[in-house]
Amino acid sequence: MRLPKTGTVEVSPSILSADFSKLASEIAEVEAAGIKMLHLDIMDGHFVPNMSFGAPVVAKLRKCSKLVFDTHLMITDPGKYAEDFVKAGSDHITFHIETVDEPEKFIEYLRSLGVTVGVCLNPETPVEAIEKVITLCDMVLVMTVHPGFGGQELIDEAARKCTRIREIAGANIRIEVDGGIDPVTTPTVISYGADTLVAGNAIFGKTDRKAAINAIMAGSN
Ligand code: DX5
Ligand code: ZN
Predict the structure, then answer these.
(1) Does the global pTM surpass 0.90?
(2) Which of 52, 139, 166, 216 sits between 20 and 30 A of 13, alpha carbons compared?
(3) What is the CATH number of the domain that holds 100?
(4) 138 is annotated as an active-site residue
């Protein structure tokens, strides 16, 4: 599966806020709401001060979902583990610019594994750090909170980087925002140029996930 073509707004629910004891049914619920992507937050307890889950879990989830697996590697050594996630069924891999010395080569390597590629930058990382690789990617992920935990408040200054990234990227690259996205912050990030909205707490923190997704989508119009 590939990333949805550009020109649409997509919601990518982050299962970080889901009930891990029943992930299959949690995913089935958002899948039934008509979304196309699922955001998988991979944390190693080193690049970020939290741990989540690894490739074996992704492989099991792959058997119960047809969604595009939008895999966000918040790990110190993405080169060591990326292939495991691709083999497990990830369709798209996003790495953090802060973790890779030669991003052009790494993007080429990820493409050779057969996935689409995203580059991510932390709130304190300037756009200049990714400038030369933006057009080599299918998606840019702008962290709008400090990575590691769900349920934080969006940092507006970080979200504003989307405007500059959109200038460089043009219309053919997705810009994804991650952290603090809800029906209230959505119009703002859309106005900055984002078109792909990660949301954890605003979806899995609600009992009616379909209504939660619709509320976010409503904010994007
Ligand atoms: C943060 C993760 C996010 C997070 C978003 O480190 O990358 O994907 O789960 O969660 P909310 O939507 O709750 O801010
Ligand atoms: Zn994420």
Answers:
(1) yes
(2) 166
(3) 3.20.20.70
(4) no
- Domain membership of residue 210 (yes or no) is yes
CA of 189 to the centre of ligand 1 (A): 15
For residue 145, the ligand closest to its alpha carbon is 1
- Domain membership of residue 115 (yes or no) is yes
- What is the C-alpha to C-alpha distance for residues 85 and 82, in angstroms, rounded to an integer? 5
Domain count, the chain: 1
| 39 ligand 1 Cβ < 6 A | yes
Does the pLDDT at position 1 exceed 90? no
Residue 143 lies in a domain: yes
Structural domain span for residue 160: 10-218
Q: Is residue 5 part of a domain?
A: no
- pLDDT of 117 reads 98
What pLDDT score does 59 carry? 98
For the Cβ of 152 lying below 6 angstroms from any atom of ligand 1, the answer is yes
Q: Which two tokens stand for residue 2?
A: 């590939």
Checking if the pLDDT of 209 tops 90, the result is: yes
